[in-house]
Amino acid sequence: MFLSIGLSIDLSMPALSPWQWALGAACATMVGLAKTGVPGFGIFVVPLMVLTVGDARLSAGWLLPLLSVADVVAVIRFRRHAAARTLFSLVPWVLAGMIGGAFALGGPEAILRRVVGVIVLVMIGLRLYRARQPERPVGEGERGRAAGYGVAAGFATTVANAAGPIMNLYLLARRLPKEEFLATGAWFFLVINLVKMPLYASRGLIDGSSLTFDLLLVPMVLLGASLGRAVSARLPQRVFEKVVLSLTAIAAVLLLLPPLRF
């Protein structure tokens, strides 16, 4: 079977056992839930997808199309709430981080994941420290902070699909209402993930088997997105922020641990 997108890609069925398909379906559902309901929840997908695929580096390519589908759903769902100006100051720094991440892709994956985890924990510590003082939202004049978040997010998303915790902290610092939080994050990741597609494909991280896997699991992403909308509608703003921060901290710790393997 072939898919024509300027070149022929053999959409072969991946050789996965039933438990791997079940875990993949759970990952797809969590991706949809995270994008439309509870950001930070999706980072749990990163280690679980490693377990599903059996290879830490390939799992990033298998996960990327599912993330992009969920981004599209979230953008459509929250299209009236996006705070685009929030992202403008990040753009050059994110691109710089992505360039660094592209070079770093040749390094040991386990080390890269731990670097991302340490970065996130440091940012959480800084946020908790600032919470004891009158906090100013990140603004156009605070280029140093925007640069730090942007470079870290660009690097993390390129090497491990793990920019979620970093962007969660940035958007929390901006004190956005939850609808704007979800919409702005969705636009950010939609653009970034589309930019990453050719990079991952050129590295052999996306192929016919991975695309077949992703196509079959799109319905689970849509199911998760429906669940996420229901959760989002019921979460008060303060609870939303606490849940996001707590899950972000847990995600950072997970990034420091060795990937699970059977």
Describe what you observe in this structure.
The protein is mostly helical and 262 residues long. Helix content is 73%, strand content 2%. It has helices at residues 18-36, 45-53, 56-77, 85-88, 91-104, 109-131, 143-160, 164-173, 178-202, 208-234, 237-256, and strands at residues 2-4, 8-10. It has a two-stranded antiparallel ribbon with strand order 1-2. Strand 1 (2-4) and strand 2 form a beta hairpin. 46% of the residues are buried. Mean pLDDT is 79; it is low at 1-7 and 137-141.
Q: With helices defined by DSSP (H or I, 4 residues minimum), what is the helix count?
A: 11
Largest sheet: 2 strands, antiparallel
> What is the radius of gyration?
17 Å
Low-confidence stretches: 1-7, 137-141
Give the overall pLDDT as a whole number.
79
Which strand order spans the largest sheet, edge to edge or round the barrel? 1-2
The share of residues in extended strands comes to under 5%
Helix and strand sequence: EEHHHHHHHHHHH
* Helix percent band: over 70%
Distance separating the two termini: 31 Å
Write a compact overview of the structure shown.
With 262 residues, the chain is mainly alpha-helical. The protein contains eleven helices and two strands; from the N terminus they run E-E-H-H-H-H-H-H-H-H-H-H-H.
